[in-house]
Amino acid sequence: KQEVTQIPAALSVPEGENLVLNCSFTDSAIYNLQWFRQDPGKGLTSLLLIQSSQREQTSGRLNASLDKSSGRSTLYIAASQPGDSATYLCAPNSGYSTLTFGKGTMLLVSP
Amino acid sequence: DTGVSQNPRHKITKRGQNVTFRCDPISEHNRLYWYRQTLGQGPEFLTYFQNEAQLEKSRLLSDRFSAERPKGSFSTLEIQRTEQGDSAMYLCAIPNAGTLIYNEQFFGPGTRLTVL
Questions:
Q1: Cα–Cα distance between B22 and B76 in angstroms, integer?
Q2: Is A89 on the interface with B (CB under 8 A)?
Q3: Stretch B30-57: mean pLDDT, rounded?
Q4: In whole angstroms, what separates CA A54 from the centre of its chain?
Q5: In a mutagenesis test of the B interface, which of A94, A98, A100 is the best target, namely the one with the most B β-carbons within 10 Å?
């Protein structure tokens, strides 16, 4: 059974900082891994999908890396902004049907 | 816009009542997923449809829960005899039909259920 851990659970930074969110998973037999953003009381917004054959994927100020063999992914956010404040969730995809989620990292970027 | 709408957005009910939620993909998708998210946790898989067929159910889906997708388009999730532990956000997701990306999922806004 896939288990996903996200560290840190919460993070508070001043605007402009670069930051790294960590995700680890126990079953390395994955097809891909998605990073999501969730604002309070809202649904999930897909940020990036990184394929198992890829090492990195970039979208704007976001960069996701994947080390499948060690069961780790990181989400790098450059030049953080108050609008980045949200909970960030990672979800490896181990099969056709389901994603397995971590508990997320709650990010607060202060002006 | 993720291409998925969910209704109602919020539902408050008393313990013991039945509730039904609906998920409507804007366009046709052969697959549709339901997840549940409790406070402070990540979403957990409930069930998954391939067209009309319900192919997988989580152990979280007790016999009080039933899901349908009668025409392979919209889906409903019904909870009978609700309990306070059913209070959660119920999320519907569809795959990205526009690319070959394996099982990339896009989520609707969710239905927040509160059982009093």
A1: 4
A2: yes
A3: 91
A4: 15
A5: A98
Helix or strand or coil: residue A26?
Answer: coil
Separation in Å, CA of B35 to nearest CA in chain A: 9
Condensed to tens digits (0 to 9), the pLDDT of residues A10-52 reads: 999 999 999 999 999 999 989 899 999 999 988 999 999 998 8
Between CA A68 and CA A27 the distance in angstroms is 9
**Using CA atoms, how far apart are residues B49 and B52, in angstroms rounded to an integer?**
6
What's the average model confidence in pLDDT over A81-98?
Answer: 89
Q: Residue A88 class from Cβ within 10 Å (0-12 exposed, 13-18 middle, 19+ buried)?
A: buried
Q: How far apart are CA B13 and CA B83, in angstroms?
A: 10
pLDDT of B2 > 80? The answer is no
As a whole number of angstroms, the distance between CA A75 and CA A17 comes to: 14
Distance from C-alpha of A51 to C-alpha of A33, rounded to nearest angstrom: 7
**DSSP 8-state class, residue A83:** G
Q: Which residues contact B44 (CB under 8 A, 6 or more apart)?
A: A101, B35, B36, B37, B58, B60
